[in-house]
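Need the bound structure for histidyl-adenosine monophosphate, inputs here:
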Amino acid sequence: MAKLTVPRGTRDVLPDEWRVRHRVLDAARRRFEAAGYGRIMTPTFEHTEVFARGAGETSDIVTKEMYTFQDRSERSLTLRPEGTAAVARAYVEQGLHREPQPVKLWYFAPMFRYEKPQEGRYREHWQIGAEAFGSDHPAVDAELIVLLAGLYTELGVPGVTLRLNSIGDASSRAAYREQLVTFLRAHETQLDEDSRARVDTNPLRVFDSKVPATIALMRDAPKVTDSLDPASAAHFATLQELLTAAGVTFALDPSLVRGLDYYSRTVFEFSCSGLGAQDAVGGGGRYDGLVESLGGPATPAVGFGCGIERVLLAMAAGGDPAPVASADVYVCVAEESERAGAFKLVQALRAQDLRVEQDLAGRSLKGQLKQASRLGAAIAVVARAEGWQAQEMRGRVEHPLSRDGSAAVQVAALVRTAAATSGT
Ligand code: HAM
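Answer from helper R.:
Posting the output first, comments after.
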């Protein structure tokens, strides 16, 4: 029989990776909730129109990458390729625009894009994202950028840099677009085929070309920041001031436009030097027109998405992190006569919120102690007929244990002492 495998561009996530994912997720959750962002979950699929109207009819995501299918009632549905349009749909549908603004939300969710898979680029990836609706103040843009920068620092993601740009409001972008199209038409013969096709549909995206000749040509293209409307220019200046005050280092990049049609004013991207071609570990920007285009009231908004697989790759590239212990206590059953008592101790320890494992594989005592050390347990309990002992795995100091209910209290105290002395 043919071997069954995951579909191309998708992957199984096993417990070892989840241990690191949880660290990332716990840190994100703590940071976002401390800053007043509440978690939101939207469905994994939506009516296709949410993304077609939201992400934009000319973006690569909508034109080439969506997983779209008809359900049995012949409705067109799409697996979520990105979170922003879905969260904006929920903001309108759930009446969140009637609550005190800004409404600040975060999510951790899988995204689906039919892209060419490679290291760091998958057809299913997970994003940690945050979106803030209802304020056009640059302090919101700054708050989000500072939150994400702080997360990378806390996680020890090495070599992260931030690029920043403003693409202005709709009117200044339309004027800029005209200038850019004139420039591109004048140099049409120097453009690669994909970029030539974009001149009419989405000329700003020519800046995203990876073709060296096009990259060289675009260095001479008119810069969006030179034709910003005064309000967007002031917005951008305040954002830079706030970031500088918060100690966040950034580089201005007038060629940064990002691949989704909904952006206006601020756009930003975090890259990581150790990652090769797929080096964007997070990105976002302002999308002041999106909520209205989805049928809601005119609502300024800003947010970001951060690809967790790439964050993990970057963390791994930065050196092997210290192995994360998966148990605090390992209970060894040296003789079957002690099984029931040991089993009871395991439950009592788990009830105290300790991470506890026990022998379930019939290993020898030596094998069980080896397993305890593999799991990183601080304490091994050895249950023998002639008496129970708790053994400190580091230092091998042994402590006799009583067999009554007080054993759990004794072991918990030993775990706390071990944690305090190892500084964890
Ligand atoms: P995005 O730049 O398309 O933006 O994706 C955000 C992040 O998701 C990227 O920086 C990258 O880390 C990760 N990512 C994207 N595609 C893949 C892939 N195929 N495989 C692995 N990781 C990937 C958005 O999706 C916007 N919704 C962000 C946003 C939120 N803008 C405003 N609010």
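Comments: The chain has 14 helices and 16 strands. The first strand starts at residue 38 and ends at 39.
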